[in-house]
Amino acid sequence: xxxxxxxxxxxxxxLFIMGLKMLSSPTTARKGNLLAGLGMIMAIAFTFLIxxxxxxxxxxxxxxxxxxxxxxxxxxxxxxxMPQMVAxxxxxxxxAAAVISYLxxxxxxxxxxxxxxxxxxxxIGSISFSxxxxxxxxxxxxxxxxxxxxxxxxxxHAFLLLLSLSLGYFVFIDxxxxxxxxxxxxxxxxxxxxxxxxxxxxPIGGADMPVVIALFNAATGLAVGFDGFAxxxxxxxxxxxxxxxxGSLLTYLMAKAMNRSIANVFFGAFGKxxxxxxxxxxxxxxxxxxxxxxxxxxxxIVVPGYGLAVAQAQHKLMxxxxxxxxxxxxxxxxxxxxxxxxxxxxxxxxAEANIPYDKLYDLEEINPEFSTADVALVVGAxxxxxxxxxxxxxxxxxxxxxxxxxxxxNVLVIKRGRGxxxxxxxxxxxxxxxxxxxxxxxxxxxxKLVQAIKKI
Length: 456
Hints:
Largest sheet: 6 strands, parallel
Number of strands: 6
Radius of gyration: 25 Å
Strand content: 5-15%
Structural class: alpha/beta
Distance between the termini: 73 Å
Helix content: 55-70%
Number of domains: 2
């Protein structure tokens, strides 16, 4: 029977890998999700056949509860709240890994080599769990999405990390103490990383959440992988390694897109703000004037940002695209890798509105086309189109790859107000001669633009 279970785990691992590969293309992503889900169902089902496995009824009950919560959440949560959901689900994975580590270590029967893996799984899983909860609270604005700092923050974080490692080392080398002492040490070993994970998320702003979510995703994968080796579960080994590797690569790519290191995201925030000031005034345009500019254009490039998600204006953007294409206007969408609050946020948002994926272009593809565009329409984006990233060495954005909307013949910016972006600096683009502001809620403005363009 044990061989059958191991064979099922091997097949599950193959399904995980195939599913991940299919996720690389929008046309096969749905099938990839289904394959990976099938692999997970198989792994769970055959776990019941492990010799000596007990409490089957309890396992079935918690599986039903977890499945129900996940299903209802996936059905009811709007795509605009998907970053919060991703953070929560990611945290649950880290928390599960931490619980497995605690149970294995508390038994006191695990050999030294595997004990080390269980300790690593518990440490990383605990940090990922509480850190993901902190990310969720920031994204949900329960504690605000701006950086939260306090005095001696970095030294205190370093102390907590050192204390966690020290407790883990003590658990690893000394298993001869009485059980109550070991249990107390274990409790502290898990409590301290939980505190650390939450606290290191506080100084991170909402705009850095794509990097943070990707990093905690990688951490959860590593924790699951370590636990898989510790308890000899092949499905956990493979799935953990896959998630850890893909999450690490995604974290690197997200940080690279912001021209920042992982350490800078977690410990540096945006540093000292630039003293650069713009002396020009923003030029406002009414919806009617903007509609004429768009309706008579030949090529329009749309740059969506987090403001689009906040306004839940993706469906209006789809209507906007349709009405322009009815007038033979070419419409393309420029996607910055870190726009929004999670990796691929804009891609998911626009896909939910049924905007064709072949109209979405990444930064390298679309930047050469801005100079040929009659209008660049910026909807809720700010820092990712700020020319200061290329022209002002004192700017906290300097060196970050941006979408070159400033090269377009005309730029229209839909913006709720005159506030600055996450970096806390003025956007030079908004003051350029060819740029015009259309102030208002993105959904409302796009709706008015659609009606006005239809009348042209």
